[in-house]
Amino acid sequence: MRAPTLVSAIILGALVWDGSLGCTEKPKEDFSHVESVQDSGIPPLRLDQSAPFGKPSRLLDGELDLSNRHSSTVLVEANAPEIHQECSGVLIAPQWVLTAAHCVCMRRAARGPDNENRTVLDSSACAATATVTGVAYSPPVRNEALSSLRERYIGAVWPHPRFRLSLDAQGAIESIQADLALIQLNTPATERFTPVKLSNTEAQTGETLVTVGYGDDGSDLGGYEDRRFSSHRVMKPPDTGSGFIALSPPARPAYQDDSGGPCLRTTRGVPTLVGISRRGLGPESMCTSTSVYKDWLLEALQRTALPRSSLPQ
To answer: What is the pTM of this model?
Structure first.
């Protein structure tokens, strides 16, 4: 992979945060059925310890998940013409994905004389379905292209009923609550992708959490997406009002597509889910606590369990 020019590197650095709700805008794809495909047309990536895969290191946040330890983290794309973005999500059961609601709901103008140029997203206007892509990396071989197996699923979207995000005229967050959505897959994910369990306890100040997410490679050679993970210290646990876990900032700029990805506690090598990332929404690293909304999650999983024949195909 050829190194970007200085001008390209400067432009790419400016694009890491583009105000697009923590997700990268992409052309819509039409996946009318579940499929399992091998990647194709991806530029060769070479192993290089000094600069991973030849990418500018200052654009990377965290470690590439080549060992598939976080295979539960998936790509999420809403199947709605009004939403042109990809985010991350996490399997919490073979047929259930949890993500951020702002990844699958639509922006629209706020109503009222005092709301000029303001934008809202809420649970009343969300995509009916989403496409979920699981990525399993093949063992890397020095000087050979990185390859992966991708499995795509369609699922029904169930946003938290109290989700609401309000943005001011400049696109900054004014208020946000219940930024969670479930996706019920039409078929269970295969054994390549291991779900994570919900944590029984809340995040605590000073403990270390792992965030996982996807993003393009930051090069000018294409839109290959990587799953990366990084560690962050909890700066402030959530209160019942906000439901947000404040994390230490990343060492480098975050990837664009990590909103909706998991915030994990690892105990004796076993990860459990304590939150869903919303750090792409602004300059602060934040997770929406799953403990604050655990009653809704458990109730929704039972209430929305539909017969397979009734799910969108």
So the answer is: 0.78
